[in-house]
User: Fold this.
Amino acid sequence: MDLDVMISYLPLYKDALLLTMRIGWQGAAIAVVIGLLGSAGIHFKIPIVRYMVYAYTQLFRNTPLLVQLFFIYFALPKIGILVSPEVCGTWGLGLLGGAYMTETFRSGLDSIPKIQSESAESLGMSRSQVFRYVILPQAVSSSVPGLVANIIFLLKETSVFSTISLMDLMFTAKDLIGMYAKTIECLVLLVIFYLIMLLPVSVLGDLLERRLRHAEFGD
Amino acid sequence: MEKALLSVRKLHKEFEGNTILKSIDLDVNRGEVIVIIGPSGCGKSTFLRCLNGLEDIQGGEIYLDGKKLQKNAKNISSVRQKIGMVFQSYDLFPHKTVLENILLAPVIVQKRKRAETEAEAMALLEKVGLADRKNDYPRQLSGGQKQRIAIVRALIMHPEVLLLDEITAALDPEMVHEVLQVVLNLAKNGSTMLIVTHEMTFAKAIADRVLFLEHGEIAEESRNPKAFFEMPGTERARQFLKSFEY
Assistant:
């Protein structure tokens, strides 16, 4: 392994990391917003909306991100909607993640036993009070493990972006290998940079989970 | 004659085509303790749930203090504040401490001042012997302790009637006593209660009136519990009570 080569690549990897993280986190943020709205639509059984949400989650969970990106990137311009690679990546990730987040939050809400609402209602609480003070706080803590897993999954899925010529980590590594054939060096750097991006999320996620559980449910 | 606190008229309940409760009539006077017994599936729990508006009813009326129970949000909330309910599985809020569990409803529903309510909560906790557990989470408590907290959580709303739905059925035998002791004290202090239970000795000790429910109907009603438990009037009640003997 040639350390000097690796060091000389660092600035390129750093730029790629920043781009990957920016798009990854923007996509994850969109996903969380979609997930909150979508799960509310299903949980509150809003007519029509709940079926649209269901169709959406099924569509996006059962097609690869690559196909979704190609659709946004190559098919939308045919009907006159031009999107930049960055916007395409952000929304592609957001829409895919939104489907996963919807499922995570929905199952979090569904995991709270019905008798919890009933015992709150029997104390005279209104439906919105029951939701706000009893259901939501419990649903949030039971959704945290899924939320963290989804975020890590989405940040990793950014590796597909190289196919729509976004200069993310994967693209940069492939590009450098193609030009200089320093395969091992490039791949080791790639692993290191993915770890830099994901390890903190994973560790913080674990801490958060443990904290929530300690404060509320387990022993 | 004294006007009934809670009146049930021709209460009819169906679920998925099956009749659960058939034309139940009942008047509950202030301070009266009514014990409802009967085989499982006879509708006794459903009956209590109907009184609290947790079940839709297909016919009949329920009156509290002469006011009809309606299914709209405002009415049902004010009725539920007057009719407290305790469930078999305690159902404390797991994400809140004992004290928060007790204070939540009086503070957000009845808009009472937190400090005063807290003083009352502590007095009630003292009575059930759990004042030192006020900052614990439900998971740190035994079943019997959780159930005593659930009773306090209902009492702090100052309900006029208390519905107790098999509150000892999920408890280990040695915890049953501590919970029933609390209920006995409530009865002594004049609380109006409707109690569904399988604890026959307890039922006999506490009841002013016994209802034996079968197939959704009141098969036997007795204002003399001692006599009822020794010699029920109906063959079916006799058989039912016999199933508790060994």
